[in-house]
Amino acid sequence: MIAYLATILLYLSIMAYASADSSLYALVKNSPPYRLAKGQVVHALDDRSKFNLIVSGYIKRYMITNEGNESIQVIYGPGNFFPLPPVLKTIFEMDIYRGPETYYYESMTDIVVHSVNLDTLEQALASDSSIYKDLLFIAGTRLNSYIHRLEDSSLSSSTWRVAHQLLFLADQFGETTDEGIRIQLPLTHQDLADILNVSRETVSRSLSNLREKKLIIAGQHIIIPNIDTLKELYS
Length: 235
Hints:
disordered N terminus; three-stranded antiparallel sheet; single chain; 10 strands; alpha+beta; four-stranded antiparallel sheet
């Protein structure tokens, strides 16, 4: 529970910085938008010469495991920038990933994306140092995601792991409604299974368990009636 609270505090501190008002946001948003339909594997968005901003919709970043399964590493939503490693390589000569795996990006919904060339980003940094603050903000959100994954690996119960993931997604993509926190991301049971690297049947059983306890309202969009009550499940 302490580790989870530390993650939330980190998340709240980085979210206090409004990326929509940032110099980086303005720079990338100034580029022409392009639109893609749901379900497209977007190889172009893995172009290591570009930095992308999602204006609307959701994209998942995943790899194919040796067993042929999909393993979702990150989900990006409105206001998120990606990918970060090429930016760090360009600006700081920092290689933060040297693995052999190929990662793919796929649109989970219809999306609208803006992109900027890394050469243009580097030129902008030379005249506006506040963009470094923007990049630190993005790095903080990624750190939050990685801390969450480490926490998740320490949980022994599949129901706890599903609850833990739902709380994280609610922090990222949640909207307050009369019924509770509604996760705007349209999640399937298979999506959750691919995030947690478990079977779809395991996720289905865990969601049924949470629903029976009235800890979630299941549907196209999952609703968490009481965040604190769900947190208490594994505290």
